[in-house]
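Reviewer comment 2.1 asked that we show a complete input and output for one of the modelled complexes. We chose the zinc ion case, as it is the one discussed in the main text.
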Amino acid sequence: MAPLINLQIFTFNIFQEKTYLIYNQYKESILIDPGCSTTAEEEQLTAYIESHGLVIKHLLNTHAHIDHIIGNAFIKQKYGVPLAMHAEGLPLLAVASQEKYGFTAYQPIAPDLFLVQGDTISITDCALDVLYVPGHAPGHLAFYSQALNICFVGDTLFKGNIGRTDLWGGNSSLLVERIRSQLLTLPDELIIYPGHGEPTTIGAEKSQPFFV
Ligand SMILES: [Zn+2]
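Response of the prediction step:
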């Protein structure tokens, strides 16, 4: 029998960023990219967590763009959960680069743990393998579960598109190379959950013009 894993998806902030909350039958959870940027969005997230009795075991960032990390400080302070990301994302945490997007309440917090390719983040019945997929942003990671047939890909690969590479530290040839080597080699039926927009599959995105 397949493990009982739940996935709750929130859409937060002006960039319509996707925040992913994974949890098991024991109420252990993993929170990926908390984009909650207002009190109302924070309350939406905490109301869900608390009404389901969830305990957040891991707080992960695919990458350190502001729309994916704006809720880090709130979540860490409220639930005391360690923050994990790739060390190459550290320069992006600086306040100066955030204000032009209007996130004036942003509070930078330091990660507690640095992830690299090959690490695994686990709760019971759910193990996420860490994939290194820079190019959209330095130190960009994806989180992949073969057993659950899901992958959280941040802003690397979208339905019908790939991530932009015109922001600080972006590199289009690196992005395409890492998508090819790390994501397109995964099963065609794998469901990928991007940082914006709808889920899709590896098979559906293989034919994008960037890869042919
Ligand atoms: Zn991004």
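The radius of gyration is 16 Å. We note this here for comparison with the apo prediction described in Section 3.2.
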